[in-house]
Amino acid sequence: MKVLILGGDGYLGWPTAMYLSRRGHEVHLVDNYLRRRVHTEAGSGSLTPIAPDLETRVTAWREVTGATITMTEGDLTEWSVVEQAFRDFPPDAIIHYGEIPAAPYSMKDRARSVLTQYNNVVNTLNVLWAMHEFAPDTHLVKLGTMGEYGTPNIDIEEGWLEVNHNGRQDRLPFPKLPGSFYHCSKVHDSTNIEFACRAWGIRATDLNQGVVYGIETEETKLDPRLATRFDYDEIWGTALNRFCVQAIIGHPLTPYGKGEQRRGFLNILDTLRCVELACLHPAERGEFRVFNQFTEQFSINELAELVKKAGSEVGLDVTIENVANPRVEKETHYYNAKHEELLKLGLEPHLLSETLVGHMFDVIRRNRDRVITDHILPRTTWRAGVLTQSADSSSALADDLLSGTMPARPHHGRPRPRPASAQGVHSA
Amino acid sequence: MKVLILGGDGYLGWPTAMYLSRRGHEVHLVDNYLRRRVHTEAGSGSLTPIAPDLETRVTAWREVTGATITMTEGDLTEWSVVEQAFRDFPPDAIIHYGEIPAAPYSMKDRARSVLTQYNNVVNTLNVLWAMHEFAPDTHLVKLGTMGEYGTPNIDIEEGWLEVNHNGRQDRLPFPKLPGSFYHCSKVHDSTNIEFACRAWGIRATDLNQGVVYGIETEETKLDPRLATRFDYDEIWGTALNRFCVQAIIGHPLTPYGKGEQRRGFLNILDTLRCVELACLHPAERGEFRVFNQFTEQFSINELAELVKKAGSEVGLDVTIENVANPRVEKETHYYNAKHEELLKLGLEPHLLSETLVGHMFDVIRRNRDRVITDHILPRTTWRAGVLTQSADSSSALADDLLSGTMPARPHHGRPRPRPASAQGVHSA
Q1: ipTM attached to this prediction
Q2: Separation CA B320–CA A62 (nearest Å)
Q3: Where are the beta strands (DSSP E) in B7-114?
Q4: Chain B neighbours among A 188-217 (CB < 8 Å)?
């Protein structure tokens, strides 16, 4: 199967590429290193040392396994990049990770908020138009998030809801209560993709993924150059990954607010298997299929307790200190999200255990001197009446990307200097 | 009341400005003439001759009434424009018409599709961030569309739905089935605004408007320079307005498909009263309030028959010829949309009558020599497997706006030549 992986340099994109390549699929990657560049601007970075660029990664992959992964360094908001990828590599399936995935980033200030929605919505629109023009029978496997649903007071179904109202009935998109402008951007994508399926007969699977944890996969362990990134900071890190880092560096674990927020979680190994299952069992023409992609539900406090217990097994004295919640979310709420469709296709979950947490401790301990501690505690908030950062003191990277003055394909992830001739464009 | 009207040069924006100014409100307008520029590019235009720019319009308004309307020529996707407007004119209410409002435009090709979503979503995000930073108590009155709902098989409520599911209950955003990427963009706006109300405590009223008809208001009739635009072409024209033009020029009326599609409609006079009522009765802090803004439901065939009958009263021999439907939409469907909230606030509808159609005939007849007939029949389609226009033969205007090389504030609506220095920015 020819699989185009968008966002192939990311935490999940790169391990997915290796996983599918090892199973005999032809894989082509597209990435513009946006994730690396936002870290460079912020002064944060991956805990694990990762190869400097995709070329190094695919070269190492070839040396280690003999298999070839091809790649494009390019920005999916640019039509020429998307068009060329579809022309050079007509895909049987597209796995679309190519989006900015962080709620706090999208809430920090105006420019980052707009960049998140611009980047995510336009990337996906470009992919839909490319499918319509060049590959109408191709299957889109799109990464969404469980955070699109929020925490309604009813069971969360897989994307669709049978509604009975005033004696009439219909099957309608499940109502969404997203919790940040990032989560809103994923709702926008779902809206656009569902429409494209209905109007153009496109095949699509929207994977509403829970919170992913884990550092290693079978393939990342083959060679140090094949490691995937691992984020633990307040912007890009997620609860379990961040707690494990806090445990190792002797920092209290910091659930936000009461910590009774419940969410769906899954092991990175299951992410790889889920996207593989989706590709192997494509949606029908015109079908907008939604799977809730997680394996277990936990409250944040339960996760913290698990990490504390796993820590004590290996002699770590782990404490828990709930901090003021920087987010707007219900801290006590009903939560029962269905997740049956991927199990029906054959998913065999890797459930969370203290053993897994112990393995994560090992990797983190090896990289302990790389932890940048002052990026762990929350500094980005979106409570009513609180402005984290004025629009005036914002992100040069976001401004440049939004104003179109950033080169489209930065070499090796390092932004080039802005061309002098472009300075006056907007005031011309 | 200080009212900021975004999109103040448009079909509804300009009449709203005069209506509110005449009632003693302070009004400031923002517009970048995007609507005029897309018509210039396409070779289409308003049936009614309109003043060349906002400056001429507000000057005429002052001469005729003695009242002052102030204005900014600027693009709301640019933060500096939004920020300056909020600093110079701290509003009590914002009436937000500042979006690209055409389904066919958004479906014509990739560039126009992306421009529609980029423009609409970023405009609204900028407004939300400006409210959060500068005017947290201000009331946002945002124009949405009934087309966000599509045609579900259940009653359409006003924005929210009481859901009973598996023995539990919640009040959730009404599920949406938008019918074009334009309609999707309005769903995105609703999603973003609902989140901003919940997270930041913003006040917002989303007016899901039906199809507006009519050419004149009390204020546009005061002076020829105060006329508002009137579109009848396949991209910007809407059913009733287009049928009236067809009747006058002796062209058959052309319902799309079976013509049994039912929609909500309202007179332009009621649009003005509805936005006034929304402003006078603001939403609560944190409330995302949705009103369905229309007064009557008709099928497209019923509208055609009404125009035919009104035509025969004045000696016109009007025929009806249904044409192949260029859109993807159900042609036979249940439709019962609630519209009670604005009536409760005091709306007294101007219902559609043959008399009103007769008045429209008069205005159209006076401008008959301005009708550009080859833009009336549908050329833009979005059926599965049909590509209206390849991405390669697209819109220079859309490309320029998306790449950031278009000047932000065109003088008098005429795009300036693209600066030579900007040509190489993206390939630098």
Answers
A1: 0.94
A2: 67
A3: 26-31, 69-73, 93-96
A4: 188, 191-192, 194-195, 198-201
